[in-house]
Design a protein that fits this description.
alpha+beta; Chloramphenicol Acetyltransferase; 2 domains; 7-stranded mixed beta sheet; 19 strands; 22% strand; CAT-like_dom_sf; transferase; Plant_acyltransferase
């Protein structure tokens, strides 16, 4: 069984008492200036998305008498001196180009208490979390102008009755990607433990990912070709969230479904992504086998294979993501062997060259900042490269640090990969999945039906007939 947790699992109910939201401003003077976002930052999809993250910390007897709310709020204020644009507000230029007005107005902060212990969240501390809307209050982030003139970040610190606490946040995605958010949080944690400043100082340099002069789109970008809606994508469907664990034995079973040379030459990420894209598509029960579906893999220009030359500065905390995509028809993806999906799943990373990054920025500048084709897409964001557990405000490392759900609002096809050790001590990957409720049941049946096959008892051809 690879399903660890779903929104249909038995859940606890608890109450959270919140203080009114307050604005936390930088602890010292900061420049009042306008700073342009890059063309990679300023994408339509990132404009509508506040990236959610949550951390769970157990009670730490050595910190008795210290209040995590006070410690984190004070450290946040000091960190904002260095990350002062995050305390500002977005503005639009004459052509709609986003910029940050560094007003030092501050970020939204909520102090809260919950009548629940950490143990009550279960053995495997993973999304979906019960009462998640209570852990990160849906305060009105937007002004009447949408993201313009609105706070760029919301943080809630919730004390638990066991002495532990939960740190949850949402960040306007035009300001940071996951790597940038991690740099900021790590800086807060370092200051909370007495540092005068972050060990890695933040760097703006958004011009490095602005369009060239003149802008020249040199690559194909199917990820920005919009598609029509389908019935299942209506906002009326009920979203279901789940966490699936894939350990070594599951990956081993998947490799047995591939030709030997392909199994040996493929990374765990590629094998798992091919399998999940296929299963995700099958679970949605598309009626037209000729319907095109997309796989997108987020690739970060800070890292190989598309690392820029010269590389982005170490403290760069803006968006450095591109979303290279491959396209298949439903009939081909679900009707061919897993090796077909695997060969396709390797292509996004190969396409994500330095030129691809610049071509994406040029596309934004010349095509009016188009939105990603989120409909009929399976989007994978691999967070395994980040040392997410390496955050300590004084209470030790978090038991969980990552997104608190998959998907983007009513669009289900965004999944995150996280490194994880389950309650049995097995190391592997947890995948956060969001699907319509009926499709989630089919998805679970699909993956368990395949992974429960004992490859040593059946010939490969017999297994393939089940795929």
């Amino acid at each position: 069984m690879v399903l660890l947790k779903s929104s249909s699992s038995p859940s606890i109910v608890f109450k959270v008492r919140r203080n009114p939201a307050e604005l936390v401003a930088p602890a010292g003077p900061t420049p009042h200036e306008l700073k342009l976002l890059s063309d990679i930052d300023d994408q339509q999809t990132l404009r509508i998305f506040y990236f959610p993250a949550v951390q769970f910390f157990p009670c730490q007897p050595s910190m008795a008498g210290k209040d995590p709310v006070h410690v984190i709020r004070e450290a946040l204020s000091k960190a904002l001196v260095f990350y002062y644009p995050l305390a500002g507000r977005l503005r639009e230029g004459p052509t709609g180009k986003l910029m940050v007005d560094c007003t030092a107005q501050g970020v939204l902060f909520i102090e809260a208490d919950a009548d629940v212990t950490l143990d009550q969240f279960g053995v495997d501390l993973l999304p979906p979390f019960p009462c998640s809307h209570e852990l990160l209050y849906d305060a009105p982030l937007f002004s009447n102008d949408g993201i313009i003139n609105s706070p760029l970040m919301l943080i809630q610190v919730t004390r638990l009755k066991c002495g532990g606490f939960i740190f949850a946040m949402r960040v306007n995605h035009t300001m940071c990607d996951a790597s940038g958010i991690f740099l900021f949080i790590k800086g807060i944690a370092e200051i909370a433990q007495g540092a005068a400043k972050p060990s890695i100082m933040p760097v703006w340099c958004r011009d490095l990912l602005c369009a060239r002069d003149p802008p020249t789109v040199t690559c194909l970008h199917p990820e920005y070709q919009q598609q029509a809606l389908h019935d299942y994508e209506s906002p009326s469907f009920k979203c279901c969230h789940a966490s699936f664990f894939f350990g070594p034995k599951h990956i081993h079973a998947l490799r047995h479904l591939l030709p030997d040379d392909l199994a040996q030459s493929s990374s765990t990420f590629d094998v798992l992504t091919a399998f999940l894209w296929r299963s995700h598509t099958a679970a949605l029960h598309w009626q037209n086998p000729n319907q095109e579906v997309l796989l997108m893999c987020t690739v970060n220009a800070r890292f190989e294979p598309c690392r820029l030359n010269p590389p982005l500065p170490e403290g760069y905390y803006g968006n450095a993501l591109v979303f290279p995509a491959v396209v298949s028809t439903v009939g081909m993806l679900c009707g061919q062997p897993l090796s077909y999906a695997l060969e396709l799943s390797k292509k996004p990373k190969k396409d994500a060259t330095e030129e691809y990054v610049h071509s994406t920025a040029d596309l934004m500048a010349t095509k009016g900042r188009p939105a990603l084709s989120l409909r009929r897409s399976f989007i994978v964001s691999n967070l395994s490269k980040f040392e997410l557990s390496d955050v300590d405000y004084g209470w030790g490392k978090p038991l969980y640090f990552g997104p608190y759900k998959a998907g983007i609002d009513d669009i289900p096809g965004v999944s995150y990969y996280l490194p994880y050790t389950n309650s049995k001590g097995e190391h592997g990957t947890v995948v956060l999945i969001c699907l319509p409720e009926d499709a989630m049941k089919r998805f679970e049946n699909e993956i368990n039906g395949i992974l429960h096959i004992k490859v040593e008892d059946k010939p490969i051809s017999s297994i393939m007939s089940n795929l």
